[in-house]
Design goal:
With about 250 residues, this protein is α+β, with helices and mostly antiparallel strands. Helix content is about 25%, strand content about 35%. One of its GO terms (molecular function) is acyltransferase activity, transferring groups other than amino-acyl groups.
Length: about 250
Amino acid sequence: MDSAVTQIAERHWHALGDDRVVGRGEVSRRPDGRRFLSIDAWHDTVFDQLAGAMLANLPRPLYTVVDEDDLDLLSRWERTGFGPRRREWEYVVPTDPRITGLDSVLPPPGVTTLAAGEAEEGPLRELDRVIRDEVEATFGWQNMPAEVPARPDGALVLDPARYAVAVQSGAYVGLVRVVPLPRQPRIGLIAVRADRRRRGIARALLAQVLGSAHRRGIATASADVNQSNEAAINLFEGVGARRTSSNLELVLR
């Protein structure tokens, strides 16, 4: 199918055929500055035309995310020059402590946990900064799950209602970020300060979050984990999490 591609807004493109929209393209900018593309088109030729028009007008590198089982879409992006950058596993995590084995898990001595909504924004923001710096110096923050939104001034929005926190000696030392979706909350990040790891803090935080969901009648949560993050994989699989699918992040440099 032959079509005419038009950029209708700063971030949107339409492909028109026979006076109707036969494909759409969009670019979104993540808080870390990276640009992610998405294209919705039934026909390969329309996809290629949209991709060509978008790539001609956007600075590189560019990124996109594809369900690894969607071989057709993966092939389309690879045809335009995109290649794999990282893989992220998707897990379904039970909340019932009889299944997770977290019913008897307590925080380490001297550590307490604050449920979502109980943390103070100032100390939470400081912990977030420390963890980001530590991850950036080792694993690389771009390899972590999708970031939280940013305000117009560029500062990240840290909503205490979405974080459970571990506290030791008055300082915040670990956190879990949870998107409170009604049917299945999503665990977007679990992290502990480097000098407080391997003490059971992450496991205690997970017990707090999953236990709270279970008490509200929610049977499962979801989680996204980078395939190279062995500590997170072991943590989730250790509580009975089941791997359901994987997403590939692709890049065009």
